[in-house]
């Protein structure tokens, strides 16, 4: 029996989405600050894509699993169906944000990024489904654009905090702190970066708890409760399912990857290729497990394995019957999200080059000086002055990247809800297409602007595009997917996001190194071309006539 959902007023929809602010604050810090932190800890440009592998891999695995489990969960004691998951995710993310700026070495920061992404993805997917659970079809566009508003607000504050703290508290170049011999370790992470991460940790848990407190979930019907009870009978607890699925997925591919690398040691020196080999093993391994479970339904041992892996199996079956609209969206998302990952990784390095004049040779010399200092060598006054100058320029680039990213997300805040009546008039597809083209134009122009304030102009276009990307596709998808499988399909939509990111992390390092002279400027131009291609493909996204946009039925105060 389908539950009739009541219409919600503006402030009910507002309170429901407040928690997205904290989640997106965390993502904002990842977008702007994590790659520069990796660079401060010694990473080269061509290493940045692979070091960001955590985002796509955890998104690919965690979100579909959490989506499928939450579809079959109802726990009144812990908040209902979705809220327990995004509360747990917010707690985990907050702890990682507190710890991240203390990273003493590159490997430590990379490890924390993996845990942080697990927390963010655990919170993200149920939140997408939560909005769809609560709202009738006529309010979905408004609900997801409200979520887009909080995406902009969270990332705006994250980035503006970086810009403000860099100006208020940056002292390393002036005081010689980069070569402080009294420090236990020589870390180039500026202390002002810490404050943004602390603020993000508080925002992540605080805003999610507000939404949990203010927004009750819609209880399932008696029939749904019975179905959930039968499905979970004999099934391990959710945390056991998640850990079991991750162990089964990773164990065999990693073991095979290790053995192959031992046979071919070249793979240890070409880590991108080794990651590709492991991923191929993982996909083959999962396909083999799926075939074994489906062909042996009466085998008790295999059935137990199938029960443990049921979230993964449900996601695989949902892909098999996925509406054609989602396949077309997947093509758009490949170019859109590949380009976005390029932007987040290479916009701060682009600014180092285009705005502050740091060359690859300068960066290599800086790393050589810092490596010698960490090894105990005596550093000349000339080299010390050079390194501190480069460090100061790099910090300014990070701060200005925060201002630019804060600008586009501030624009997102302003236009997110304005896109709702426009979409109701001219259609969601046309709004989405135009916004993708605007984002492409922004990326194609920003490398040629050498005035720091004029650089904010393309960010206005980028912000309009980001507002559409964060809301309109989700509203369109919510209209064509089955209500009872909303969680797993939202997880699949996220797979469409993270697979392009995953491909980018293993492919773009060699591309920028061998085809683009290791130039961050060329990387940004490459991303702009991909956005234009995404816009062309988005012209194919046609909703059924009975699912197209209706007039706005929520009053905006």
UniProtKB/TrEMBL annotation:
Membrane-crossing residue ranges in chain numbering: 84-100, 148-169, 192-213, 239-261, 273-293, 325-346, 406-423, 430-449, 455-476, 488-508, 520-539
Q: In the UniProt record, does the keyword Transmembrane occur?
A: yes
- Entry-linked Pfam families: MFS_1 (PF07690)
Keyword terms of this UniProt record: Membrane, Transmembrane, Transmembrane helix, Transport
Entry keyword annotation includes Cell membrane: no
How is this protein situated with respect to the membrane? Multi-pass membrane protein
Please give the coiled-coil regions recorded for this protein.
Answer: none
Q: Which SUPFAM superfamilies match?
A: MFS general substrate transporter (SSF103473)
Where in the cell? Answer: Membrane
Domain of life of the native organism: Bacteria
Q: Which residues form the signal peptide?
A: none
| Primary location recorded for the protein, binned into one broad class | membrane
Q: Which residues form the Major facilitator superfamily (MFS) profile domain?
A: 325-557
- What is the official name of this protein in its record? MFS transporter
């Amino acid at each position: 029996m389908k539950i009739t959902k009541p219409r919600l007023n503006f402030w009910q929809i507002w309170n429901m989405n407040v928690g997205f602010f904290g989640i997106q604050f965390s993502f904002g810090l990842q977008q702007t600050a994590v790659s520069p932190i990796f660079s401060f800890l010694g990473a080269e440009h061509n290493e940045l894509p692979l070091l960001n592998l955590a985002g796509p891999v955890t998104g690919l695995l965690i979100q579909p699993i959490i989506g499928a489990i939450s579809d079959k969960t109802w726990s009144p004691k812990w908040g209902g169906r979705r809220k327990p998951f995004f509360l747990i995710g917010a707690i985990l993310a907050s702890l990682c944000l507190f710890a991240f700026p203390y990273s003493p070495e590159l490997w430590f920061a990379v490890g924390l990024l993996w845990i942080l992404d697990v927390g963010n993805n655990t919170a993200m997917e149920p939140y997408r489904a939560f909005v769809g659970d609560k709202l009738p079809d006529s309010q979905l566009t408004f609900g997801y654009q409200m979520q887009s508003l909080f995406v902009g607000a969270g990332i705006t504050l994250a980035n503006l905090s970086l810009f403000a703290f860099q100006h208020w508290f940056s002292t390393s170049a002036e005081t010689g702190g980069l070569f402080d011999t009294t420090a236990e370790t020589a870390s180039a992470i500026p202390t002002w970066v810490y404050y943004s991460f602390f603020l993000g940790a508080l925002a992540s848990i605080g805003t999610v708890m507000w939404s949990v407190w203010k927004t009750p979930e819609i209880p399932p019907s008696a029939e749904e409760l019975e179905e959930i009870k039968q499905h979970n009978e004999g099934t391990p607890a959710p945390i056991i399912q998640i850990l079991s699925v991750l162990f089964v997925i990773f164990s065999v591919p990693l073991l095979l990857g290790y053995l192959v690398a031992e046979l071919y040691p070249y793979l240890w020196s070409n880590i991108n290729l080794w990651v590709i080999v492991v991923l191929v093993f993982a996909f083959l391994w999962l396909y083999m497990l799926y075939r074994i479970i489906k062909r042996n339904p009466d085998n008790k041992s295999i059935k137990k394995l199938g029960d443990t892996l049921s979230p993964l199996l449900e996601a695989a079956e949902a892909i098999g019957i996925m509406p054609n609209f989602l396949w077309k969206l997947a093509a758009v998302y490949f170019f859109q999200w590949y380009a976005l990952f390029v932007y987040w990784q290479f916009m701060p390095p682009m600014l180092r080059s285009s705005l502050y004049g740091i060359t690859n040779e300068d960066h290599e010399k800086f790393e050589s000086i810092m490596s010698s200092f960490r090894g105990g060598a005596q550093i000349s006054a000339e080299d010390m002055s050079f390194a501190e100058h480069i460090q100061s320029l790099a910090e300014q680039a990070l701060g200005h990247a925060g201002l630019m990213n804060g600008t586009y997300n501030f624009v997102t805040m302003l236009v997110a809800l304005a896109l709702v009546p426009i979409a109701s008039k001219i259609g969601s597809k046309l709004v989405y297409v135009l916004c993708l083209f605007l984002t492409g134009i922004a990326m194609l122009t920003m490398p040629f602007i050498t005035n720091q304030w004029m650089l904010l102009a393309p960010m206005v276009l980028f912000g309009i595009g980001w507002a559409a990307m964060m809301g309109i596709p989700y509203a369109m998808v919510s209209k064509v997917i089955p209500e009872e499988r909303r969680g797993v399909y939202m997880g699949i939509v996220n797979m469409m996001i993270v697979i392009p990111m995953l491909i980018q992390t293993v492919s773009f390092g060699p591309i920028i190194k061998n085809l683009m002279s290791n130039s961050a400027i060329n990387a940004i131009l490459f991303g702009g071309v991909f956005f234009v291609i995404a816009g062309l493909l988005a012209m194919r996204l046609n909703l059924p006539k009975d699912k197209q946009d209706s007039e706005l039925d929520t009053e905006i105060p």
